[in-house]
Amino acid sequence: MVTNRLRHPLAALVFAALLTAPWVGVMALGGPKTLGFSPLMTVAVSGLSVLGASFMLAWGAETAEKDVPRAFAIAVLAVLAVAPEYAVDALYAFGAGDGGATAEACAQFTKQQIENGATPVAAACHDANLAVANMTGANRILIGLGWSGIALFTVYRAGSAKDPSVTEKDGFLANTVSLDRDLGLEIVFLLGATLFAFLVPLRGGIGIADTIVLLGLYIAYIAIIVRGDVEEHEEQVGVPAYLQRLPFAYRALSSITLFLFSGFIIYTAVHPFAHGLEVIGKDLGVPPFFMIQWIAPLASESPELIVVAYLVNKARSTAGFNALISSKLNQWTLLIGTLAIVYSFALGEVGTLPFDSKQAAEIWITAAQSLFAIAIITNFEISVREAVLLLVLFSTQVIAEYAVILTTSAAEATELSMAILYAYTVVYVAIAVVMFWRRRAELARTFQWTANRAKESIGGESPVADHSD
Fold it and tell me: Is residue 239, in this structure, part of any structural domain at all?
């Protein structure tokens, strides 16, 4: 009897809620600083809460799939899972605007003065650079570690748990993970946002024009998917299966509650979690700027990666990759687009968030990596060798840049870092161009299918074209 109770789906839900309980208590008592928590204690308590909230977020999305288009449920999941990243970036963008960081003001300071925060305005210019660095770091982690790592984990899991999306092929690291062909919509919109991102550094900052284009892309995307039909959803197990058997009113209330509660926990816990990791990193001698660009985004991306790993572990790799790609789309549109809004609000007028030449190079390599990743999935599959290449290119660039920071002077480090960024940008773009050329037929079909789906969503009579090979 006890064993059956422990196996009840609600037991898993209660366990996830208990993981978040210590953090709820900490927040109710004034937060970790008020309680005198050490960075390690803060990381431990907030990290456990993020883990519990991530499972609850995934269950909410899976439950909602019975009543709304799956793409829309996953889009909501993706936004909530990366909300902490928005919060961190918005913090820096607000600091930049509030301190009066403009292109003209920042041009009066040397790089050293900006990094040291010699004056309040110089410190604001530093915040502007950190906003861009944090954003580019998060985007590159999502693809470099997220897409590649989940693809490799999916193939690994297929060895012990049958996953219909994994296909064994002859050849070195040739096994592939098949993707949902309905992702053609996300691929087209993500490609549009990526190509536009290459233009952002040419204007010397992120302005309202960028906001209009990028938010416009995302709004158009949501307008299409929200009009989609509710698909025949996959048979669920555990918590989602239990909640989907409830009457509609209770089922909807359950999904909304899980979304709101997990979103609140993630939003409040990830920033202290990331900050705690930063402090621990500094104590270990990791440069602060490196921490902001890589360690903090890694912490804020953790809910998304946990959710996707959970889905893959349930042999739902299709839903997992849908979430990853949807996250990349909303980060590449919403995240960049909202930076100018937050900055302008803090500045008190419509303005352009400035950044230096190093951050311009960071945006270019991020766009180039995105272009390469899109080229990989244009044929709706990702092979083990492609995942390994994605991981190797990402990790070697970060390691090389870190080595430069540790072994050279500040002036030399900046120059060498930019050379590394430009070199990897060229490599990413060159490989992407070749892959797009080889897969141009698949890409053309995807554009045609997306155009037909867009027409259908706004009431046109054009049928959705066949999207099979």
Answer: yes
Written as six digits, the tokens of 405 are 């920071």
Angle at 51 between CA 327 and CA 89, to 5 degrees: 45
Sign of the alpha-carbon dihedral angle for 423, 427, 430, 436: negative
pLDDT at 439: 93
- Give me the domain span that covers residue 148: 2-438
Give domain status of residue 222, yes or no.
yes
444-450 contact pairs (CB < 8 A, 24+): 446/184, 446/187, 446/188, 446/378, 447/188, 449/184, 450/184, 450/185, 450/188
Which tokens hold the place of 18? 């208990």
| DSSP helix/strand/coil, 260 | helix
Closest CA to 213 of 228, 221, 326: 221
Candidates 28, 75, 73; CA nearest to 49 is 28
Using only C-alpha atoms, the chain has a radius of gyration, in whole angstroms, of: 22
Q: Are 423 and 210 in contact (CB under 8 A)?
A: no
Q: Dihedral of the CA atoms 311, 90, 265, 44 (nearest 10)?
A: 90
- pLDDT averages per 10-residue partition of the chain, 469 residues: 54 87 92 88 87 80 72 64 72 90 90 84 90 90 89 77 74 81 88 95 91 91 71 59 83 87 83 77 75 77 72 67 80 87 92 92 96 94 93 95 84 88 97 95 91 75 48
DSSP calls for 231-257: --PPPP-HHHHHHHTS-HHHHHHHHHH
In this structure, what are the phi and psi dihedrals at residue 167, rounded to the nearest 5 degrees? -120, 125
d(CA 39, CA 36): 9
Total tally of structural domains belonging to the chain? 1
What is the structure's pLDDT at 282?
74
Contact (CB, 8 A) for 466 and 403: no
- CATH code for the domain of 198: 1.20.1420.30
CA distance 208 to 195: 18
| In-domain check, residue 332 | yes
- Answer for the pair 210, 340: CB distance below 8 angstroms, yes or no: yes
